[in-house]
Amino acid sequence: MTSRGQAGSGVATVVRASVLDDRGDVPMVIGGQRVAAAADEWIDVFAPSRHQVRLGRVPRARVADVERAVAAAHTALPGWRRRHFTDRQQALLSIAGVLSEHAEELALLTAADTGNALRPQARPEAITLATLFRYFGGVASEVKGVVLPAGADQLQYTQREPVGVVGAILPWNSPLMIAGMKIPAALAAGNTIVVKASEEAPLAVLRLAELCAPYLPPGVLNILTGYGTECGAVLAGHPGVNKVSFTGSTAVGRSVGATAGDRLVPVSLELGGKSPTVVWPDAASPERIDETVTGVLAGMRITRQGQSCTAGSRLFVHEDVYDRVLDATVRRLRSLTVGDPLDETTDMGSLINLSQYERVRDYVLDGRTRRDVEVALDGLSSSFDGLFMGPTVFSRADNAWRLAREEIFGPVMVAIPWRTDEEVIAMANDSHYGLAAYLWCNDLSRALAAAGRVESGWIQVNQAGGQMVGQSYGGLKQSGTGREFSLEGMLEAFTTIKQVNVRIGRGQPEAAL
User: Fold this and answer.
1) What pLDDT, in 10s, does the model give residues 363-375?
2) CATH code 2.70.50.60 for 13-271+479-498
3) Does pTM surpass 0.85?
4) Any long-range contacts for 319-324 (C-beta under 8 Å, 24+ apart)?
5) What CATH code would you report for 276-461?
6) Contact 112, 54 (CB under 8 A)
7) Which are the catalytic amino acids?
8) Angle at 265 (CA atoms; ends 264, 266), nearest 5 degrees
C-alpha cells in the first residue's frame, strides 16, 4: 500500500466555493427556504480526510425544526399529489439534467464530506444520483391501478395513491446515492418528503436540495440536519409522518422500526450486512483469477474503505485454490494508494470520523491476538497520517469468530477455506444478516444452484458492481425489510392501494361476506 499527501485546505476550498454562505454556514431547507435551526444551534462539519479542517457549520435541528418541516410537507402535499404525473415527471427529469451538469461539483463535495475517494467512489455516486432522478421521472406514469373483470353491473378498480409525508433518514457512507434511492421515488409517486441528512456528511445533500429547489413547489422537499437522537428519532416518531424510510445500522434500525411500528406506520429499513463472497476452484484458473480478484475487491467495497453494508467481508475460498486466491488478493490490495480523496490517483480515502477509526482499529487489534488466525495483511502496520487505514486480511479464520460475524464497516476482510458446496452454503447462511452475496463460479449450473440457496436479498454471480438502477434492493433477516431502487420498490415503499367498487347496473347489490 502506498500513501500520498493527505487532504488539507483543498477540501475546504471546494466546500466554500459550493455551499457555504458568507458566514461559513450551510442552512437547512424547510418550506422552500434556507433556514437555521429554531434555537440557532450549529454543528461543525469536518473533513474526514483531515479531521482538523473545518468545512463549515450546519444547523442542529431539534423538535421545533422537525415540526416546521413536517408542517411544510403537509401544506405542500395536496397540491403535489393532485398534479398530473407528467408535471411531476418533468420536474424530476429537469432536476436530473441539472444534477448531471453539476455532477463534478457534487462529486467533489462528496469526497470532501465523506472522505471517499473522488475517482473510484464519489464521482460514480454523483452520476448515479442523476440517473436515479431520471429513472424515477421516467416511471412516474406507472403509479397506476388495475380494473377487475366483475361483470356488466360492476366497475371494480384499484388506484395507487401516495402514502403522504415521507420521513427519510440517510447514512453518511453514500449520502447522495441513498438520497437518490428515496427522494425521486417518493416524489414521483406524489408524496412530499422530509429528509434527515447525516450530521457526519450533510453538505452534498444540502447542495442537492438547492439544485432541486427551482423545479419543486415549496415544502415538497425539506432537508434537516442534526443528531439522530434529537432529530432523526423525532422525525420517525412524528404523528404527521405517514411513512419512514431508513438506511443505516441494524442497531439504530431496530429503534426506528419500533418507533414507527408503535404508530402502525409503514417503514422501510435497509440495514447492516456481513456479506459472503464465495470462490469456486474454476474461478481461480490462470485465465480467470485476475477477473475474480478484481471482483472480490469490488464486492468488498474497498474503494469505500469497506464502509458499506453490502461489503463482501467474508471471503470463502475453496481449499484447492485458497493460497492462490489469497496471495493474489493480498498482492492487489498492497498496490492500492491510500490518501487524499481529492487526488485522482487515490484508490482509498479515509474513514468517516475518529470514533469509527478507533472502532475498526480495535477489531484489527483483537484479530492480531488470535493465535489460530493468520494476519495476511495488516492495514495498521502502515504509517498513515489521520483517519486513514489500509486494508487488513485475516486468513484461515473460523466462521464463528467475532470478526467473521459482526459488521466491522471498515477495510477488514476475513478469509475462510471450504471443501464442499453444502459446507460453504451453510457458512454463508450462518449469519443474522442477509443483504448481499457474491458468487464466483464458471459452472453456471453450480452457481445458480448456490444462488437459489444463499439467504440474501441481492446476489451477484461473477460480478460485484454496485446497485443497478431499476433493480429492487433490500435485505433479509436483520439486514432489513422492504425494497427500494426500482419501480417495484417505489410502488411498495411509497404508495398504498385503494379498492373502489361501483355498482353501475340496476340489479340488487351483492350481499357482503
Assistant:
1) 999 999 999 999 9
2) no
3) yes
4) 319/417, 319/418, 319/419, 320/281, 321/279, 321/281, 321/284, 322/415, 322/417, 324/284, 324/289
5) 3.40.309.10
6) no
7) 270, 309
8) 120
